[in-house]
Input
Amino acid sequence: MKKLAFCLLLCLCLVGCQKEPEILPRGSEIKMMVATDLHYLAKDYHDDGIKSQSLYELRDGKIVKYITEITQTFIDTALEVHPDVVLLTGDLTFNGEEASHQELAKMLQPLIDEGIQVLAIPGNHDIRNPYAYSYREDKIYYENTVEAEDFRKIYQNCGYRYASSKDENSLSYLYKISEDIWLLLLDTNGYEYNSGFGLNNIGKIKEGTMDWVKQCYADAEMQDATIYTVSHHSLLNNPYLHSDDYRIQNGKEFREWIATHGTSVHFSGHIHTQSIISETIEGKEVYEITTESLAVSENLYGMVTISPDSFTYEAKGLDVDSWAFNNQIKNPELLDFKNYARQFYQDVSYKHFLSNYESIEVEQSVKEKVAYLLAVSNPYYFSGNIDEIAEELMETEEYSTAIQFQDQFSSNYLQRIYTKRALNQRNLTISLNKE
Output
C-alpha cells in the first residue's frame, strides 16, 4: 500500500510540471534564492508529546516544532519574489524520512508550477539515514528512509529531470540557468556507508566524479559559459570552525580545478552558520558562501543576483511574524517569531553549555556566567552577526569571567566566536568585469 501511494504521488508530481524550463538568453540577469539545511520533518511525525518536546530542545537550535511554518514562509516568500532559481544545498529533511521527502517535494511544487526552477541536492542527513524516526506522544518509531535513486525520483522536478548532464557515479548534475550561467551541483555525501551503527557525515567526491566535472568544464569553455559550483559540505578551510571535518576531504583537486577554470563562487551548507570566506588558490580569489540553516534563528536565506558585470549576495531573514499575521494564525509564538526564535536558540544553547561544564571543578556561578555568555553569543555567531555585538559582550562581567577561566572551558570556541571576520558574513559583491 505504501509503495502504491508513493507511485501515485510521483505521478501527481510529474503531471504538475510537464513543460521544460526555458534556458535564459546569454547576458540575462539571474536572480536566485538560496536556502540550506531545512531539516523538514513530516507534520505527522512530531506532536506535543514527551518525545517531541525532547526533540525540540536539541542543542543545535533547529526549530523543529515550527518547521512546517518556516518552510511554508520560505516558499510563499519565493512565490512573491519570483526568482529565476531556488537553490537548496542539502539536508532537506530532518533525518531522511521518506514521508518528509515526499511532503517537502509536494510543498515545493507550486514554485515549479509558477516557472521557478527549483534545484536541490542531498545532504548527509537525507539518504539511507538509520535515524529516520517519528516522535509520537511518549514513543519513538522507526520510519522508512530513502535510497539514492528514491531521492532522484522524488525530486526529479527539482533539477534532475531537466539537468543538462548527470554524473553516473553520484547524484551530481549540471544545470543551465542561462546560455552563459551554469550551476554544477556536486553530491559529496557518503550515504552508501550509512548503517544501523551510525551516520556517515564525511564529505568526499566519489570516484569517477572528477572526470565528469572536467567534462562539464570543457563543455562550458566551448560554449563560453561560467560555472558556479554547489555542494552540501564545505569547499574551503573555514578558520572560524573548530574542525576541518566539515570540508570535502578529498577536494584539493576540485578546488584547484575550479580556481583555474573561471569559477569564483561556491555555495554550500552543512555547518548551519552564515559564513562568507575566501581563499587564494592558484593565484585566484575563490569565495565560499554558506547560508545559515533555514531551521535556525535568524532563519536566513540568500538573495543572489548575477549580471554580466557583477555578482551580489545578501542574507535575509524570513518574516514568519508577517506570514503568521497574514494567514490569521493566532499562535503568539509565531506572531512574534523573530524574538521567539532568538530566545529559543539562546535557551537551548545555555542548557547545552551548562551540561557540558558539569565535570569542571569551578564554582557553579562561574559555569553559569560562561554558559550565559556563549548562549547569548550563539544566535549572533551562527547568523553571521557576531561582529555587531562582540565589542559590547567583551565589556561584560561574563566575558571577563570566561577569559579568566578559559583553560577550564573551551578557549578555542571563545577565540573562534570573537575573532574579527575578514569579510562581511552576510553580504558580498564581486565585480565580474573581465577587462
The radius of gyration is 22 Å. Residues 1-18 have pLDDT under 50 and may be disordered. The longest strand covers residues 310-317.
